[in-house]
Amino acid sequence: MAHSTVLTASTAMSGSDECKDFLARMLPQFLALFALQQAFRHHPPTPELTCAFEKGTAAILREIGHVIVEHEYNRIEPACFDDCPLRLRFVGEEYRRRPKSPKQVGTLFGEIKLCRYLYEAVEPGEPALFPLEKNLGIEAGLATPALAERVGLWSVDHEQEQVRTLLLHEHNVSWSVTSVRKVTTALRDGLASFREETQVARVLELLTKAFASKGKQRPVLAAGRDGIHVPIRQDGYHEGATATLSVHDRRGKRLGTVYLGRMPEAGQGTLSAQLTSLLTKVLTQWHAQGRPAPRLAYITDGGNHPKEYYQRVLRRLDDPWHPGQKLAWQWVLDFWHACGHLHKLATALFGEGAKATSWFAKWRRWLRDRHQGVSQVLRSAMWHYNNGGQLRQGQRAEYWKAYRYLRKHAVWMKYSQYRRQGMPIGSGVTEAACKTVFAERLKRSGMTWKHAGGQVILDLRVLVLSAVWHVAHKAYLGSKPQPTVSKPASKRENSGQELKTAA
Fold it and tell me: pTM of the prediction?
């Protein structure tokens, strides 16, 4: 920054042609801004004039920014072809210089004309290189990092046409749907590689807060997963999957959550692998810091995929605190899911009406608050089944389906015990993830998705919902490779500093 300021100041003082051209482009904008200011001062303020003044000022300032950004980006590379390095090396490949060519690039201040040197690959068949684009971090050859980030954040919540409208109104950038997709996909590809490490850091931060909190219970690290049906283009609905990892403090308060989301996949293997890797790295790094183990809870419904994941993966994970032993997970069947089956019992026994509502309300409280509450619920249900008159065939089938479900999963319904221990009993955060990760963006009216396009949006959404977007974006920008000079220019009349910058 200091070097750039010195160069700018020295250029201004030298009275060069470049400086004169820059000032000539800026002068009309400053004059327009001054005229707008004077016009506003010489009229009584009204709502209409105030609105027009602010909009006019914003438009002029955007044009000033446009001129500055275009000027600064185009002066990075040497003006003279012979001052450019003869050869560059980038990601293990060698490139030789070729003349400049123009390119329209989107910025926060509108589209600018970027004139950049082309470097041709020495190895036949390799794509050409534009070093200036790599130096600036141009995304997909279309947008500066700042505009690309804006497009990515908009795409998290808005449809493509809405993103295009926002680009035109907010930044005077007119893109096709294809350009929006290219930038969004390129940004996702870069950010996705930092999703896990930023989520691990986020969970460790939450665990630190949880162990520092006041209360008598040990903090809880709670995992959960659930499925939701997604409309696939020309293929109907298929089940996607989401997973969550939450931290609860010593009083049972949830401090934060990180999210995962995957488009429909047979067996949900990718989601399982991501959740397992996330859990393993969190616990390993927490143990490496010499910190005590949190209590571990797995809160889901009784679906096949959650149950299979618990049996085949979770309970077989090694315990870093006790070598040779397995982690002690407490699987909690979601209380509200259990209540759904309890309500089916009530309607099967009493039909729709006040009696069913009253019975359900009483036994829902007992299920939650009483020791062995599920056993008492089942005894009451069986008494009414035997003494309440003959049920119709459909009612009997519904009754036994709900009864067997509650009996089969009773071992994971010790809700009064869990509550005394400060453990969560509901998978509300995971149920909500089906809505926030998937439904709010992927299940709007008339929408259908291809797997690849839907996954791009999901990968971006989980970064925002996990509160790690800005950290991941900063890490991504810092990781981008930069070209290096392998053979310097034969003529170096210009400043060597500019050549290094161009490389």
Answer: 0.85
